[in-house]
Amino acid sequence: MDPKAAEATAATSSLGGCQASEQYVASKDGQKGPLIDHAEGQRFLNDTFKVIMEEVLSKGADVKEKVCEWRDPAELRRLLDLELLEDGQPHDHLLQQVKEMVKYSVKTNHPRFYNQLRFLTEALNTSQYTYEVAPVFVLMEDVVLSKLRSLVGWSDGDGIFCPGGSVSNIYAMNLARYRAFPQVKLKGLWSVPRLAVFTSEEGHYSICKAASMQGIGLENVFLVKTNESGCMLPEDLTDKIELAKSQGAVPFLVSATSGTTIHGAFDPLDLIADICEKYGLWMLLGGGGSVLFSKKHRHLMKGIERADSMTWNPHKMLLTGLQCSAFLLKDTTDLLKHCHCANVTYLFQKDKFYDVSFDTGDKSIQCGHKVDCLKLWLMWKAVGTRGLEERVDKAFFYTRYLVQEMKKKEGFQLVTEPQFMNVCFWFIPPSLRGKQNSDYYQERLSKVAPAIKERMVRQGSMMIGYQPQAGRVNFFPMIVHSPQISEQDVHFLLNEIERLGGDL
After folding, report:
1. Rounded-to-10 torsion of CA 412, 416, 417, 418
2. Which of 324, 341, 371 is the last residue of a domain?
3. N or C: which terminal CB in the chain sees fewer CB atoms within 10 Å?
4. Pairing of strands 22-26, 32-36
5. Is 28's pLDDT higher than 50?
6. Does any domain span residue 311?
7. Quick check: 494 pLDDT over 80?
8. Residue 116's pLDDT is what?
9. Under a CB-based contact definition with an 8 Å cutoff, are residues 237 and 254 in contact?
10. For the residues 103-119, what does the mean pLDDT come to?
11. Residues 83 and 149 in one domain
């Protein structure tokens, strides 16, 4: 396949990830959720591919065509329908949006596109760092970030899309250190004291990676105890902060989590925020931001508006195309830019003919970044805020349904009661039932999940991970978030595990 056509295919697949043809209906159990019309989805992909082939790869490479249809930011905002609404948009409207994206985007594969960088042609995609190079996507990212911040409860603020949640957490730690010790940017690590970071025992490993990369050191990441459900214990956080201070370290950041990786636990944000305010610490929140779409379940993140920053990964619960991670800030002092800017004059001239505040590349540690906002924007545009809420509610509904059905069956044992979409459980085969007090029980139980996993993978029936954790032998950490899941799928899962592990 021609490379340009291959890139167009990839771009089309990314656009198709929005599942633009979703409709919302009530199932027989009363749970509202998306009904995906694959024929309509295929029609959208086919029509989008035609636009990309004709407008991007054909006309976009024609020297007789314009490199760009320039519009000033305010005018382009009026021309584009960027607003994200409660309800989704129909096929024809979405396709028109695709055409307008192409029309007003810079044709980076044009023979007369001369810039400091020669980009690999990527249909409907570019490196986003200045308004003149990515006008549509600069405005689009601004709209999406603003909408996400409003769900958090911030009327203003800042943010940027990052290549994954781990990088978003690195951003947070870098900004927190810069806010506390701005001299570090100029003078380096020797100019700051020993620093201390705090995260729970269930926190994401990227906090440790960020501390290692930024010269803070793994020994200065203090792990805070959790309760049996995996939630951070505020009293132990206070103890760990005092411990760090007694050792001569300066606390500067607390990483809280909403929906931990393994158990899906929600840390008590208000109590953690109280402690952060008392000690003057940056409060980073990572995890299940998509819960905020749900009126039924957003109470799980009570206190979120008190955080200083948030890492939100729509490519997880909402299943937007990889990668799609937003780093959100409450700050309104341009801290993101002050911390990261290099002010290079070959890109960020101050005397440009448009408002240079739309040149967002200097906020990023990598300057340019992929237009990941498109994935979430197009999905949101297609199904609306209400549609995304129904996706979240459906995930919670089927998580509870799975647990309900699991408790009816012999041999399934929950590790903890789920708070989120995470259902952690053991399957206890008939040979081990009633033998929990025997000397060999734990050792034999630890081999059950790996054996079942091998069988399901070799037979191709399912794929579920397994792991040990905190003294617990191997168990299954099941996550329920597909918009296509049904009661039939739940019953198949349970029956298949029984079939695969019944003779162990």
Report:
1. -100
2. 371
3. N
4. antiparallel
5. no
6. yes
7. yes
8. 35
9. yes
10. 48
11. no
